[in-house]
Amino acid sequence: MEPTLVILAAGMASRYGSMKQIQGFGPGGETIMDYSIYDSIRAGFGKVVFIIRREFAEDFKNIFDPKLKNLITAEYVFQDMESFTEGVSVPEARTKPWGTAHAVLCAMDTVKEPFAVINADDFYGRPAFQDAFDFLKNDSTENTQAIIGYDLLTTLSEHGTVNRGVCTLDKLGNLVGITERLNISLKDGKIICEDNMEPHELSRDTKVSLNFWCFHPSFFSFTQKVFREFLQKNIDDPKAEFFIPIAADRFIKEGGTIEVIPTTAEWFGVTYKEDAPQVEKSLNELVKKGEYPERLWG
């Protein structure tokens, strides 16, 4: 059974101000997700699962079903507030979903094979999907997961600071932990992190997480266990979020291994509205180089 691609598309980006997941950036009006799906098909993935809000289901199906038909199996999963809360009463003050790890958990009944997880609004590059496929096909086990690691320098924005999950690696290149660093920017040739944490300056090749994970299906039940405990501690905090690094950190602490797979793939994303023209330009350049056809879906 071929690996599955799981796309996190349930969030609305407040800083960007629109439903950027289905905004067209490519020369044929393609979304960033289109390129991720195209790259995953080329790598050998057999299914794509969209994790979305229930109210956006028709939008997504109308956009993706026609063009993916006969190319890859597409399924849709809803991240509902009550999913996997196991009868725990959700306070009225809670208005937003539980976070990315909860979103992944919502795919538990749909995904039974090794799977990759990506953000909807990040362009990850073809080599990253090939690396993920190779790991999921050959090295994925109950005790070994992976994350694609990007060089920090290649993930900065010209239009403002960014937040990044900075990876700490052991001598074998495995993940020790991820620290969320805030307000990162390039100043006078140096990468500066203005969040009152040390180190203040980060090296250019610091590996960062852009939420491209590779999991064995057993990770679902592990995440469910950790989410159960998270709810017990955080049910009354309306802003508490259950992020993938929380489950990953716990996995490592309990003796699991998460490999960091370094990639030279070109990444770009839309953090700010001002980033959009650069994304369009980058995609057009890749089309001109022959990396992608002008119309992805023929």
For the biggest sheet, the summary is: 11 strands, mixed
Rg from alpha-carbon coordinates: 19 Å
Question: Structural class of the secondary structure composition?
Answer: alpha/beta
Q: What do we call the CATH homologous superfamily of the domain at 4-140 and 211-247 and 262-288?
A: Spore Coat Polysaccharide Biosynthesis Protein SpsA, Chain A
CATH fold field value of the domain at 4-140 and 211-247 and 262-288: Spore Coat Polysaccharide Biosynthesis Protein SpsA, Chain A
CATH architecture descriptor text of the domain at 4-140 and 211-247 and 262-288:
Alpha-Beta Complex
Number of continuous helical runs: 7
**How would the global form be characterised?**
globular
Instruction: Give the SSE string.
Output: EHEHEHEEHEEEEEEHHEEH
User: CATH top level of the domain at 4-140 and 211-247 and 262-288?
Assistant: Alpha Beta
> Distance between the terminal alpha carbons, to the nearest Å?
27 Å
Give the averaged pLDDT, no decimals: 90
- Stretches with pLDDT under 50, minimum 5 residues: 12-18
What would you say about this model in short?
The chain is α/β, with parallel strands linked by helices and 298 residues long.
